[in-house]
Amino acid sequence: MTITGLDRYRQMVSVMDTPLTALKGVGPKVFARFEKKGLRTIGDALAFLPYRYEDRTTIKNLNELLPGEATTFMGKLKRLEVRGYRKRRVLEGLLVDERGALSLKWFRGNFDWLLKKYPVGEELIGYGTVGVFAGRKEVVHPELELVGEDYSASESDPVTPVYSEVEGVHQRQLRRIMRQAVESGARARVPLVPQEAQALSGLDPRWWEDPGRIWRELHFPSKGGEDLTKIVTGCRHVAVLEEFFLLQIALLLKKSGDEAVGGVKHSPTYKLVKALLSSLSYELTDAQRRVLGEICADMERPSPMHRLLQGDVGSGKTLVALNSALLAIEGGYQAALMAPTEVLAEQHFKNISQLLTGLPVNVRLLTGSTTAVERESLLGELSTGAIDLIIGTHALIVEDVSFRRLGLIVVDEQHRFGVMQRVALAEKGRDGALPDTLVMTATPMHRSIAMTVYGDLDLSVIDEMPPGRRPVSTKIVKERGRGEVFQFVRQEVSKGRQAYVVCPLVEESEKVELKAAVETANHFSSEIFPDLSVGLLHGRMRGSDKAEALEAFSSGKTQVLVSTTVIEVGIDVPNATVMLVEHAERFGLSQLHQLRGRVGRGGNESWCFLLAGGSVSEDGWQRLRVMEETNDGFRISEEDLRIRGPGDMLGTRQSGLPDFQIGNILRDGPLLEVARGMAQAVLKADPPLSSPDHSVVKRVVEARWSSKLSLLYSG
Ligand code: ADP
Ligand code: MG
Questions:
Q1: Residues 377, 318, 404, 365: what is their CA dihedral angle, to the nearest 10 degrees?
Q2: What are the angstrom distances between the C-alpha of 483 and each of 210, 489, 493, 525?
Q3: Is the pLDDT score of 258 beyond 80?
Q4: Which of 181, 174, 139 is nearest to 160 (CA)?
Q5: Alpha helix locations (H) across 332-371?
Q6: What is the structure's pLDDT at 30?
Q7: Rounded to an integer, what distance in angstroms lies between the CA atom of residue 571 and that of residue 300?
Q8: Using an 8 Å Cβ cutoff, are 123 and 147 in contact?
Q9: Ligand 1 site residues, Cβ closer than 6 angstroms
């Protein structure tokens, strides 16, 4: 019997799935420590790449260190002692070699433990950023290792990997374990990118030659100096391209599956669109007009539309969406608009109903609070086609909702949904054809993220605000500034304006969240603004109470609205000019930007105050300062992505974003494009992936992605 590629792949999978306990030195106790770090199998360990390398071939003498440089250094510990007393205690050490000296300093930490760990006279290897204090070079809070003990195990290597800490496991022990994992992983590794695609990667072919080399070099590079970066980058690119390639194959298969099913071909008459536009007191902006043209062109084509509509908060996406819906409705189709929250769905319903006054369009609302009786009758009308436009929340995608002729799905604020949910609704088209999909987002998504999540998604951008908008002035307010800010709110209210106060969401417990919001509202109404009318809005209120609270605020009866983040998206009260965010440090930047977008909608000068209380870290302040510096949603989302990582920004569980083990969609964006080209080439030559050379790819894609993307794909 010959061993096929598929057999070797199976072997690799079984090695990757082997628990770490199979390795020498990993008993139950050590395993538990690895497990805490999320590392259970050899595969997990392989993806646990060193976060830096100690390159012994380039270690400089201490006198050659340059201020500002992050570097590895080595020397003998000549002194280590605590100076100062009580709160001013500093642990200071002096490292020396033949040529020079370097001070080491700690302002925090367990000094006794450090003193015991690093005996004077020992040779140390360290890493950190070189600074200068009082004319002497120093490193504050260095990472240190004893050369004699921890280091000797790998002394024969030119480069030593440094892994992020696995609590309770020494670097030296960690390296020994990693070396075993890497060896078995490397021996079993089979290339998952077919040769013809490798050739399109733009990488030097020798990086693809030896599959096992990738793991070996990424963990224990064979060369230091100038070669180190080259080797690690080359090998990393291979690993990343492989991940991206497989996902792109899956997405392209999904797309061609969709195309095979076919989409709705709309034939708009423009009657309703014209009627709506002529009833408005303003003109579409150029950007809105352009984007609507792009959508219309897509809708008239028979293949299903997958378009992302990106526009900053307040740029007028809703109007574009409504016009798109009318294009579908004119041609005899139904349209659905899905919003992430009930409050937003209600707002959309209210605004859209108003905009459609006098037009022959039957618009209805379906949310979790719709009564059973009403729901029953709505479902009936949806299936007969009596309803033209349905606006709703997740309740829309529940299984028993069926349409007569669903032609367009608009998903607002997509970053809160996942791919799965989008697909669920996309399959609601009854008569076989897939409805067009328009996804709206105010959180500018990187092209690379959009591509990751949706594959071939077309992008339309509204890059212009309706006239008369003013940027919102943003200020960070510390504890002692609160009084002044409250005074400011009172002033605005006395001019007839309104204010929002937002409290952070406590995700672990809705009860706690509720309590916090209610308490804050009480606090604001009885102590801070006893002279004003303060309202409360939170996610756990009954639908009708929510609507009432919102109505009171829109009509101006409520002057200050205290709420949780339910108001984050879509609420439109132009008279509101002040936004106070409590514990702003607990929010993501994109979320703050969304919140800030609730004010500055009426042409009046508007303000956003970020109240940051208690102990905010230096990073925390820096993050918040981005909000003061810019109103540009794109920059903010980039910062967010940089600081929190993509999974976090999109809400890992909700995003539907695949987890990459090695790749990072922000950093490796260009590789995503390359991988897409590779995948396209492979599928062009062999659409069903039926050649034996592609059996492994086919298997991997089926195993990893098919359920996630509900591939319409039969092989
Ligand atoms: P988004 O959903 O993009 O955040 P909205 O659709 O809620 O923005 O629009 C914000 C506000 O701008 C709404 O009050 C809307 O009526 C108004 N608006 C939309 N388009 C225009 C336009 N072309 N000119 C003036 N105002 C507009
Ligand atoms: Mg909106």
A1: -10
A2: 66, 10, 15, 15
A3: no
A4: 174
A5: 342-355
A6: 96
A7: 32
A8: yes
A9: 282, 284-285, 288, 311, 313-319, 442, 466, 572
Average confidence score pLDDT of the chain: 84
Select the more confidently predicted residue: 85 or 236: 236
> What is d(CA 195, CA 391) in angstroms, rounded to the nearest whole number?
49
Q: Which of 434, 386, 429 is nearest to 405 (CA)?
A: 429
pLDDT score at 401 = 80
Q: Which pair of structure tokens corresponds to residue 516?
A: 């916090």
Spatial distance between the Cα atoms of 325 and 349, rounded to a whole number of angstroms = 13
Give the per-residue pLDDT at 465. 85
**Residue 661 contacts residue 47 (beta carbons within 8 Å):** yes
Predicted confidence (pLDDT) at residue 525 exceeds the cutoff of 90:
no
The region of weakest confidence among 472-486, 524-538, 692-706 is 692-706
Contact 503, 595 (CB under 8 A): no
Burial 626-650 (b: 16+ CB within 10 A, else e): bbeebbebbebbbbbbebeebeebb
**Residue corresponding to tokens 């199979």:** 22
Which residues keep their CB under 5 angstroms from ion ligand 2? 570
Ligand 1 pocket test: pick from 288, 310, 319 the residue with the most ligand atoms within 8 Å of its Cβ.
Answer: 319
φ, ψ (nearest 5 deg) of residue 451:
-70, -35
Tokens representing 11? 């072997």
Phi, psi of 18 (to 5 degrees): -65, 130
pLDDT (mean) for 231-256: 89
Q: Which atom of ligand 1 is least distant from the CA of 321?
A: 6
User: Residue 391: in which H helix or E strand, if any?
Assistant: strand 389-392
CA 514 to CA 497: how far, in whole Å? 27
How many angstroms separate the alpha carbon of residue 676 from the centre of ligand 1?
A: 36
In this model, does residue 1 exceed pLDDT 70?
A: no
Is 699's pLDDT higher than 60?
Answer: yes
Mean local confidence (pLDDT), 83-108: 89
- Confidence at residue 514, expressed as pLDDT on a 0 to 100 scale: 59
* Residue of the CA atom closest to atom 17 of ligand 1: 316
Residue 155 has pLDDT above 60, yes or no: no
Substitution site in 281, 290, 318 for ligand 1 pocket (most atoms within 8 Å of beta carbon) = 318
Residues in the chain: 715
Give the pLDDT confidence score for residue 125 in this predicted structure. Answer: 87
- The two most distant CA atoms of the chain are separated, in Å, by 89
Q: What is the C-alpha separation between 616 and 476, in angstroms, rounded?
A: 12
- Residue 656, pLDDT > 70, answer no
Q: How far is CA 706 from CA 24, 43, 179, 308, 420, in A?
A: 36, 21, 33, 23, 11
